[in-house]
Amino acid sequence: EPSPAARSVGGLLSDIQSTIMQQPFTDNYSIIPGKELGRGKFAVVRKCVEKSSGHEYAAKFMRKRRKGKDCRTEIIHEIAVLEMATASTRVINLHQVYEMASEMVLVLEYAAGGEIFNQCVSDEAFSEEDVKRLMRQILEGVSFLHQNNVVHLDLKPQNILLTSSSPLGDIKIVDFGLSRMVSSQQELREIMGTPEYVAPEILSYEPISTATDMWSMGVLAYVMLTGLSPFLGEDKQETFLNISQLNVSYQEEELQQLDPAALSFIQMLLCKRPQDRATAEQCLQHPWLQAPEKILPVKDQEASTSISTSEPQSSTTAAGDEEQE
Ligand code: ADP
Ligand code: MG
Q: Which value does ipTM take for this structure?
Protein backbone atom coordinates (compact mmCIF):
# COMPACT_ATOMS: atom_id res chain seq x y z
CA GLU A 1 0.00 0.00 0.00
CA PRO A 2 1.57 3.30 -0.99
CA SER A 3 2.24 5.71 1.84
CA PRO A 4 1.19 9.33 1.37
CA ALA A 5 4.85 10.08 0.67
CA ALA A 6 4.79 7.83 -2.36
CA ARG A 7 2.33 10.20 -3.92
CA SER A 8 4.38 13.25 -3.11
CA VAL A 9 6.68 14.92 -5.60
CA GLY A 10 9.00 17.58 -4.28
CA GLY A 11 7.16 17.32 -0.98
CA LEU A 12 3.82 18.23 -2.56
CA LEU A 13 0.69 16.07 -2.36
CA SER A 14 -1.48 15.88 -5.46
CA ASP A 15 -4.48 13.72 -4.47
CA ILE A 16 -7.52 15.37 -2.97
CA GLN A 17 -10.90 14.02 -1.87
CA SER A 18 -12.92 17.24 -1.92
CA THR A 19 -15.27 17.91 -4.79
CA ILE A 20 -14.10 21.03 -6.57
CA MET A 21 -17.20 23.17 -6.98
CA GLN A 22 -17.45 24.81 -10.39
CA GLN A 23 -20.46 27.05 -9.88
CA PRO A 24 -19.93 30.67 -8.78
CA PHE A 25 -18.94 30.88 -5.12
CA THR A 26 -21.52 33.63 -4.57
CA ASP A 27 -24.35 31.26 -5.61
CA ASN A 28 -23.87 29.47 -2.29
CA TYR A 29 -22.27 32.10 -0.04
CA SER A 30 -22.80 35.76 0.84
CA ILE A 31 -19.57 37.59 1.41
CA ILE A 32 -19.87 39.80 4.47
CA PRO A 33 -19.05 43.29 3.31
CA GLY A 34 -16.40 45.37 4.99
CA LYS A 35 -13.17 44.35 6.56
CA GLU A 36 -11.32 41.35 5.24
CA LEU A 37 -10.16 38.80 7.83
CA GLY A 38 -6.64 38.74 6.51
CA ARG A 39 -4.45 39.13 3.50
CA GLY A 40 -1.20 37.59 2.35
CA LYS A 41 0.84 38.02 -0.81
CA PHE A 42 -1.45 35.92 -2.98
CA ALA A 43 -4.54 35.37 -0.86
CA VAL A 44 -7.38 37.38 0.62
CA VAL A 45 -9.50 35.90 3.39
CA ARG A 46 -13.08 37.10 3.78
CA LYS A 47 -15.84 36.23 6.18
CA CYS A 48 -18.88 34.71 4.50
CA VAL A 49 -22.16 33.01 5.29
CA GLU A 50 -23.34 29.80 3.64
CA LYS A 51 -26.80 30.56 2.25
CA SER A 52 -28.22 27.07 2.81
CA SER A 53 -27.17 26.76 6.46
CA GLY A 54 -26.58 30.31 7.72
CA HIS A 55 -23.18 29.18 9.06
CA GLU A 56 -20.22 31.55 9.05
CA TYR A 57 -16.99 30.59 7.28
CA ALA A 58 -13.69 32.14 6.29
CA ALA A 59 -13.15 32.04 2.52
CA LYS A 60 -9.52 32.09 1.37
CA PHE A 61 -9.39 33.42 -2.19
CA MET A 62 -6.18 32.28 -3.89
CA ARG A 63 -4.87 33.42 -7.25
CA LYS A 64 -3.90 30.50 -9.48
CA ARG A 65 -1.21 32.51 -11.29
CA ARG A 66 1.49 34.17 -9.25
CA LYS A 67 4.42 36.02 -10.76
CA GLY A 68 3.47 34.52 -14.13
CA LYS A 69 3.65 30.97 -12.76
CA ASP A 70 0.81 28.46 -12.49
CA CYS A 71 0.37 27.64 -8.79
CA ARG A 72 -2.62 25.33 -8.96
CA THR A 73 -0.41 22.40 -7.88
CA GLU A 74 0.55 24.26 -4.70
CA ILE A 75 -3.09 25.06 -3.94
CA ILE A 76 -4.08 21.41 -4.44
CA HIS A 77 -1.31 20.45 -2.02
CA GLU A 78 -2.66 22.90 0.57
CA ILE A 79 -6.10 21.30 0.18
CA ALA A 80 -4.64 17.79 0.49
CA VAL A 81 -2.84 18.69 3.74
CA LEU A 82 -6.00 20.23 5.19
CA GLU A 83 -7.91 17.06 4.28
CA MET A 84 -5.26 14.89 5.91
CA ALA A 85 -5.47 17.02 9.06
CA THR A 86 -9.25 16.82 9.53
CA ALA A 87 -8.48 14.19 12.19
CA SER A 88 -6.84 16.89 14.35
CA THR A 89 -8.98 19.46 16.16
CA ARG A 90 -5.90 21.73 16.27
CA VAL A 91 -5.91 22.30 12.51
CA ILE A 92 -8.53 24.47 10.82
CA ASN A 93 -11.31 22.51 9.11
CA LEU A 94 -11.82 22.66 5.35
CA HIS A 95 -15.51 22.85 4.41
CA GLN A 96 -15.57 23.25 0.60
CA VAL A 97 -13.45 24.17 -2.41
CA TYR A 98 -14.44 26.35 -5.38
CA GLU A 99 -12.58 26.91 -8.62
CA MET A 100 -13.04 29.89 -10.90
CA ALA A 101 -11.15 31.02 -13.99
CA SER A 102 -8.32 32.73 -12.14
CA GLU A 103 -8.95 31.86 -8.49
CA MET A 104 -9.59 29.02 -6.12
CA VAL A 105 -11.55 29.49 -2.90
CA LEU A 106 -10.91 27.43 0.23
CA VAL A 107 -13.97 27.63 2.47
CA LEU A 108 -12.59 27.22 5.98
CA GLU A 109 -14.04 26.95 9.45
CA TYR A 110 -14.21 30.51 10.83
CA ALA A 111 -11.85 31.24 13.73
CA ALA A 112 -13.61 34.16 15.44
CA GLY A 113 -10.76 35.01 17.84
CA GLY A 114 -8.35 36.04 15.10
CA GLU A 115 -4.57 35.71 15.17
CA ILE A 116 -2.71 35.12 18.43
CA PHE A 117 -0.38 37.74 16.96
CA ASN A 118 -2.76 40.50 18.08
CA GLN A 119 -2.51 39.40 21.71
CA CYS A 120 1.27 38.88 21.54
CA VAL A 121 1.82 42.55 20.70
CA SER A 122 -1.01 44.15 22.73
CA ASP A 123 -0.98 45.42 26.31
CA GLU A 124 -3.25 42.58 27.31
CA ALA A 125 -0.58 40.02 26.55
CA PHE A 126 -1.15 36.39 27.46
CA SER A 127 -0.53 35.28 31.02
CA GLU A 128 2.00 32.48 31.46
CA GLU A 129 -0.89 30.10 32.23
CA ASP A 130 -2.59 31.08 28.96
CA VAL A 131 0.63 30.54 27.03
CA LYS A 132 1.07 27.10 28.56
CA ARG A 133 -2.42 26.02 27.58
CA LEU A 134 -2.16 27.45 24.05
CA MET A 135 1.37 26.09 23.60
CA ARG A 136 0.15 22.60 24.55
CA GLN A 137 -2.56 22.86 21.92
CA ILE A 138 -0.19 24.12 19.21
CA LEU A 139 2.21 21.28 20.04
CA GLU A 140 -0.62 18.75 19.76
CA GLY A 141 -1.34 20.06 16.27
CA VAL A 142 2.32 20.12 15.27
CA SER A 143 2.83 16.64 16.69
CA PHE A 144 -0.08 15.38 14.60
CA LEU A 145 1.38 16.96 11.46
CA HIS A 146 4.85 15.55 12.14
CA GLN A 147 3.46 12.06 12.80
CA ASN A 148 1.98 12.34 9.33
CA ASN A 149 5.26 13.55 7.84
CA VAL A 150 4.05 17.07 7.20
CA VAL A 151 6.19 20.07 8.13
CA HIS A 152 4.35 23.39 8.30
CA LEU A 153 7.38 25.65 7.67
CA ASP A 154 5.53 28.88 8.46
CA LEU A 155 4.60 28.60 12.15
CA LYS A 156 4.22 32.13 13.50
CA PRO A 157 1.60 34.09 15.48
CA GLN A 158 -0.16 35.21 12.29
CA ASN A 159 -0.84 31.58 11.35
CA ILE A 160 -2.16 30.49 14.76
CA LEU A 161 -5.77 31.55 15.20
CA LEU A 162 -8.20 31.42 18.11
CA THR A 163 -11.78 30.16 18.18
CA SER A 164 -12.58 33.14 20.45
CA SER A 165 -10.52 35.88 22.07
CA SER A 166 -12.41 36.64 25.28
CA PRO A 167 -12.84 34.32 26.92
CA LEU A 168 -9.69 32.92 25.40
CA GLY A 169 -10.65 29.94 23.24
CA ASP A 170 -8.69 27.19 21.54
CA ILE A 171 -6.06 27.44 18.84
CA LYS A 172 -6.39 26.50 15.17
CA ILE A 173 -3.33 26.16 12.94
CA VAL A 174 -3.83 27.69 9.47
CA ASP A 175 -1.88 28.44 6.28
CA PHE A 176 -0.34 25.31 4.79
CA GLY A 177 0.95 27.25 1.80
CA LEU A 178 4.61 26.46 2.58
CA SER A 179 4.03 23.05 4.13
CA ARG A 180 5.72 19.99 2.69
CA MET A 181 5.87 16.21 3.04
CA VAL A 182 9.24 15.23 4.51
CA SER A 183 9.35 11.46 4.26
CA SER A 184 10.06 11.50 0.54
CA GLN A 185 13.42 10.28 -0.75
CA GLN A 186 14.57 13.63 -2.01
CA GLU A 187 15.87 16.09 0.51
CA LEU A 188 14.05 19.36 0.88
CA ARG A 189 16.01 22.56 1.12
CA GLU A 190 15.43 26.28 0.94
CA ILE A 191 11.76 26.93 1.51
CA MET A 192 11.71 30.40 2.88
CA GLY A 193 9.29 31.24 5.65
CA THR A 194 9.12 34.52 7.52
CA PRO A 195 12.57 35.93 8.39
CA GLU A 196 12.02 36.21 12.17
CA TYR A 197 10.87 32.60 12.49
CA VAL A 198 13.20 30.91 10.02
CA ALA A 199 15.57 28.18 11.29
CA PRO A 200 19.37 28.29 10.82
CA GLU A 201 19.39 25.27 8.47
CA ILE A 202 17.18 27.17 6.01
CA LEU A 203 19.74 29.98 5.93
CA SER A 204 22.67 27.59 5.51
CA TYR A 205 20.94 25.54 2.80
CA GLU A 206 20.85 22.36 4.86
CA PRO A 207 18.04 19.79 4.80
CA ILE A 208 14.61 20.68 6.14
CA SER A 209 13.00 18.36 8.68
CA THR A 210 10.35 18.35 11.39
CA ALA A 211 13.02 19.99 13.60
CA THR A 212 12.75 23.07 11.36
CA ASP A 213 9.23 23.62 12.73
CA MET A 214 10.49 23.08 16.27
CA TRP A 215 12.85 26.03 15.92
CA SER A 216 9.84 28.19 15.00
CA MET A 217 8.01 26.80 18.04
CA GLY A 218 10.87 28.10 20.20
CA VAL A 219 10.60 31.56 18.63
CA LEU A 220 6.81 31.40 19.04
CA ALA A 221 7.07 30.52 22.75
CA TYR A 222 9.52 33.39 23.27
CA VAL A 223 7.23 35.87 21.53
CA MET A 224 4.07 34.70 23.30
CA LEU A 225 5.73 34.97 26.71
CA THR A 226 7.49 38.29 26.24
CA GLY A 227 5.95 40.13 23.30
CA LEU A 228 9.53 40.40 21.99
CA SER A 229 10.79 38.85 18.78
CA PRO A 230 14.09 37.23 19.80
CA PHE A 231 16.00 37.50 16.53
CA LEU A 232 14.43 40.56 14.94
CA GLY A 233 17.06 42.98 13.68
CA GLU A 234 16.95 46.36 11.99
CA ASP A 235 16.66 44.66 8.61
CA LYS A 236 16.45 41.16 7.10
CA GLN A 237 20.23 40.79 6.93
CA GLU A 238 20.63 41.57 10.61
CA THR A 239 17.79 39.18 11.52
CA PHE A 240 19.44 36.38 9.51
CA LEU A 241 22.78 37.13 11.16
CA ASN A 242 21.17 36.96 14.62
CA ILE A 243 19.64 33.58 13.75
CA SER A 244 22.78 32.01 12.27
CA GLN A 245 24.86 33.26 15.23
CA LEU A 246 22.18 32.21 17.76
CA ASN A 247 22.27 35.77 19.02
CA VAL A 248 19.41 35.62 21.50
CA SER A 249 19.10 37.20 24.92
CA TYR A 250 17.76 35.22 27.87
CA GLN A 251 18.36 38.21 30.16
CA GLU A 252 15.20 40.12 29.22
CA GLU A 253 13.21 41.35 32.21
CA GLU A 254 10.08 39.74 30.75
CA LEU A 255 11.77 36.32 30.91
CA GLN A 256 13.12 36.67 34.44
CA GLN A 257 9.58 36.91 35.83
CA LEU A 258 8.62 33.49 34.49
CA ASP A 259 8.86 29.97 35.82
CA PRO A 260 12.51 29.01 35.09
CA ALA A 261 11.11 25.93 33.36
CA ALA A 262 9.77 28.24 30.63
CA LEU A 263 13.32 29.32 29.85
CA SER A 264 14.59 25.75 29.70
CA PHE A 265 11.68 24.95 27.40
CA ILE A 266 12.67 27.68 24.94
CA GLN A 267 16.33 26.73 25.15
CA MET A 268 15.69 23.12 24.15
CA LEU A 269 14.15 24.44 20.92
CA LEU A 270 16.47 27.29 19.96
CA CYS A 271 19.43 25.00 19.24
CA LYS A 272 21.49 25.54 16.14
CA ARG A 273 21.75 21.85 15.22
CA PRO A 274 18.33 20.44 14.22
CA GLN A 275 19.14 17.05 15.81
CA ASP A 276 19.63 18.73 19.21
CA ARG A 277 16.14 20.23 19.31
CA ALA A 278 13.29 18.66 21.25
CA THR A 279 10.50 17.03 19.23
CA ALA A 280 6.85 18.08 19.63
CA GLU A 281 6.21 14.96 21.73
CA GLN A 282 9.21 15.72 23.97
CA CYS A 283 7.97 19.30 24.39
CA LEU A 284 4.60 18.02 25.59
CA GLN A 285 6.45 16.01 28.27
CA HIS A 286 8.52 18.98 29.42
CA PRO A 287 7.98 19.96 33.11
CA TRP A 288 6.88 23.48 32.13
CA LEU A 289 3.79 22.13 30.37
CA GLN A 290 2.73 19.62 33.00
CA ALA A 291 -0.47 20.35 34.91
CA PRO A 292 0.32 21.90 38.32
CA GLU A 293 -1.04 18.88 40.21
CA LYS A 294 1.44 16.62 38.43
CA ILE A 295 4.42 18.47 39.91
CA LEU A 296 5.44 16.94 43.22
CA PRO A 297 5.22 19.48 46.03
CA VAL A 298 8.54 20.34 47.62
CA LYS A 299 8.54 19.46 51.33
CA ASP A 300 8.38 22.54 53.53
CA GLN A 301 11.63 21.71 55.24
CA GLU A 302 13.51 21.17 52.02
CA ALA A 303 12.10 24.35 50.59
CA SER A 304 13.26 26.50 53.49
CA THR A 305 16.69 24.84 53.46
CA SER A 306 17.17 25.45 49.79
CA ILE A 307 16.20 29.10 50.14
CA SER A 308 18.59 29.74 53.02
CA THR A 309 21.53 28.11 51.27
CA SER A 310 20.89 29.37 47.76
CA GLU A 311 23.35 31.84 46.34
CA PRO A 312 22.44 34.65 43.97
CA GLN A 313 22.94 33.54 40.39
CA SER A 314 25.63 35.48 38.63
CA SER A 315 23.56 35.69 35.47
CA THR A 316 20.80 37.64 37.16
CA THR A 317 22.92 39.96 39.32
CA ALA A 318 24.43 42.12 36.62
CA ALA A 319 21.36 44.07 35.62
CA GLY A 320 20.66 44.82 32.01
CA ASP A 321 23.98 43.58 30.69
CA GLU A 322 23.83 43.61 26.94
CA GLU A 323 26.68 41.31 26.11
CA GLN A 324 25.74 40.89 22.49
CA GLU A 325 27.31 43.20 19.91
P1 ADP B 1 -1.51 33.58 3.56
O2 ADP B 1 -0.99 32.35 2.90
O3 ADP B 1 -1.82 34.67 2.60
O4 ADP B 1 -0.68 34.03 4.72
P5 ADP B 1 -3.43 32.61 5.51
O6 ADP B 1 -4.07 31.29 5.33
O7 ADP B 1 -2.35 32.72 6.54
O8 ADP B 1 -2.94 33.15 4.10
O9 ADP B 1 -4.56 33.68 5.85
C10 ADP B 1 -4.22 35.04 6.00
C11 ADP B 1 -4.86 35.61 7.25
O12 ADP B 1 -6.28 35.52 7.15
C13 ADP B 1 -4.52 34.88 8.53
O14 ADP B 1 -3.28 35.33 9.08
C15 ADP B 1 -5.71 35.23 9.41
O16 ADP B 1 -5.58 36.53 9.96
C17 ADP B 1 -6.86 35.25 8.41
N18 ADP B 1 -7.52 33.94 8.37
C19 ADP B 1 -7.11 32.87 7.65
N20 ADP B 1 -7.91 31.81 7.85
C21 ADP B 1 -8.86 32.21 8.73
C22 ADP B 1 -9.97 31.55 9.37
N23 ADP B 1 -10.25 30.27 9.09
N24 ADP B 1 -10.72 32.27 10.24
C25 ADP B 1 -10.42 33.55 10.50
N26 ADP B 1 -9.40 34.22 9.95
C27 ADP B 1 -8.61 33.57 9.07
MG1 MG C 1 -0.37 33.25 6.62
A: 0.99
